[in-house]
């Protein structure tokens, strides 16, 4: 009886075919551990927003120093996404996937037990470095191990854990504030994250290298072994074969390596369009998302007539006003989850681009409503309604879709670099708004500041539509061949209702 030779296919074709029977334990575990990284990012960044009034009171911080505290983790994310995320193209996805979570755990310990402001800021920067590295790497671990037809939804669902973490972070802050009346309670807030972060660090040891990355390096035997584990649950690679590429001359390899090592390659054709699409809207989106997200407790408390900076209040007053702001922020932050749920339903039906455009427009509408609060004697309703619409819209569109697109539109050889650069561009906006928001809120006032963010949101919609790229249903091999650089069919841009 003749033995049938294994069928030779691309990595995506093997994953897509076997994925019809459902995901294996390794695929499910990889997805969950990647989602955990986004959970910690949302939790820590929003915890900083709740903890800042206590930190400001304990260290007697000026307005500029408060901005420095809120900006520090975002600065770390910016550096980590660009400086560390690109390493995933050189050393592979898995080593960074493990290392970054270990760094996060260590820095959380440092933040919780720091005995001076400079040490606290240093460890806060370290948490950002770890979370920044996780931005591109977690995306790649998901998109390069899951079937094409569910890639978008699963990446989006994992990123959505950022919103879950944001709500959880605000909730943890509320819980601690309601139980104690000590300025040092901010240390407990961060300490509560240490154990789950350590557990995720250990669990990430039991993940596999990306088969796409291994194949791109010509390590086909290893890629086939990983594919067997991903697709069948074991490491017996005899049942599948990966399509081999023709050998490349050493001189060509050298040219390719030199090109890939330079950030300039992202600004050359055909990648320039993808770079603009992923980085500029992400920058504009983060201006609003982190400005509103981090300072929602302060804005809410100010609107309700209290001061959360705590510079002149008693300890009880600081905690009472901080708790009041956190409670309002918790209600508003739940709309991040509502926006995420709708995005998950529509991402493969409507597409990434249209959702991002509509989401940007919705953000502008929400911020405009919030900005109009200055004309009302009782501004509470306008602030709450505007921020709720903003949070719903940002997770319906730009906050989630920028992340999904950044991991889809670049070829494997520079996917980590491209996704990392896009995330870094976004965090430039986040750092700017986190550092300047307290000062601009004092100098410009709430109405003017929110109006500026309306304009940046609408600009994000325009840029997204102008440089749109269709990735729905595209395999990663099609991305590698350049087939993804196809704009959507000409159609009028969506208009606000």
UniProtKB/TrEMBL annotation:
Subcellular location: Cell membrane
Chain ranges passing through the membrane: 39-59, 65-84, 96-113, 119-143, 155-176, 188-207, 287-306, 326-346, 358-376, 382-406, 418-437, 443-465
InterPro entries to which the protein is assigned, alphabetical: MFS_dom, MFS_sugar_transport-like, MFS_trans_sf
Xref: PROSITE patterns: MFS
Occurrences of domain Major facilitator superfamily (MFS) profile (ranges): 30-472
Keyword terms, alphabetized: Membrane, Transmembrane, Transmembrane helix, Transport
Membrane-related topology note: Multi-pass membrane protein
PANTHER family: SYNAPTIC VESICLE GLYCOPROTEIN 2
The protein, known as: MFS transporter
Species name: Microbacterium marmarense
Lineage: Bacteria, Bacillati, Actinomycetota, Actinomycetes, Micrococcales
């Amino acid at each position: 009886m003749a033995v049938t030779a294994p069928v030779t296919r691309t990595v995506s074709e093997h994953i897509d075919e076997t994925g019809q029977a459902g995901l294996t334990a390794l695929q499910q575990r990889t997805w969950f551990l990647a989602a955990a990284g986004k959970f910690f990012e949302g939790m820590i960044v929003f915890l900083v927003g709740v903890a800042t009034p206590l930190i400001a009171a304990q260290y007697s911080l000026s307005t500029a120093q408060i901005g420095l505290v809120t900006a520090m983790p975002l600065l770390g994310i910016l550096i980590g996404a660009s400086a560390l995320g690109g390493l995933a193209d050189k050393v592979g996805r898995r080593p960074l996937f493990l290392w970054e979570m270990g760094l996060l755990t260590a820095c959380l310990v440092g933040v919780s037990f720091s005995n001076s402001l400079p040490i606290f800021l240093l460890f806060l920067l370290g948490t950002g470095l770890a979370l920044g590295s996780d931005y591109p790497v977690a995306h790649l671990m998901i998109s390069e191990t899951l079937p094409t037809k569910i890639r978008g939804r699963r990446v989006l669902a994992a990123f959505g854990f950022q919103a879950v973490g944001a709500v959880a972070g605000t909730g943890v802050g509320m819980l601690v504030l309601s139980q104690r009346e000590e300025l040092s309670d901010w240390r407990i807030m961060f300490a509560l994250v240490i154990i789950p972060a350590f557990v995720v660090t250990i669990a990430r040891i039991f993940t596999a290298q990306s088969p796409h990355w291994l194949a791109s390096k010509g390590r086909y035997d290893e890629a086939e072994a990983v594919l067997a584990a991903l697709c069948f649950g074991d490491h017996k690679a005899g049942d599948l074969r990966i399509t081999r590429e023709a050998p490349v001359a050493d001189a060509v390899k050298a040219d390719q390596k030199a090109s890939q090592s330079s950030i300039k390659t992202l600004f050359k054709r055909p990648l320039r369009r993808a770079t603009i699409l992923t980085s500029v809207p992400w920058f504009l989106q983060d201006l609003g998302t982190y400005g509103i997200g981090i300072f929602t407790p302060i804005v809410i408390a100010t609107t309700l007539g209290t001061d959360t900076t705590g510079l002149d209040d008693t300890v009880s007053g600081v905690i009472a006003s901080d708790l009041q702001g956190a409670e309002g922020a918790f209600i508003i932050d739940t709309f991040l989850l509502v926006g995420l749920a709708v995005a998950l339903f529509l991402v493969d039906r409507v597409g990434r681009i249209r959702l991002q455009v509509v989401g940007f427009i919705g953000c502008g509408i929400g911020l405009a409503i919030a900005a109009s609060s200055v004309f009302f004697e009782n501004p509470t309703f306008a602030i709450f309604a505007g921020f709720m619409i903003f949070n719903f819209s940002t997770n319906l569109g730009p906050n989630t879709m920028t992340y999904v697109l950044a991991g889809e539109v670049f070829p494997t050889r520079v996917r980590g670099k491209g996704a990392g650069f896009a995330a870094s561009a976004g965090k430039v906006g986040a750092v700017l708004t986190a550092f300047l928001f307290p000062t601009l809120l004092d100098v410009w006032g709430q109405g003017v500041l929110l109006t500026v963010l309306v304009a940046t949101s609408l600009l994000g919609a325009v840029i997204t539509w102008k440089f749109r790229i269709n990735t729905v249903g595209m395999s990663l091999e099609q991305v590698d061949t350049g087939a993804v650089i196809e704009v959507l069919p000409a159609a009028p841009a969506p208009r606000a209702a």
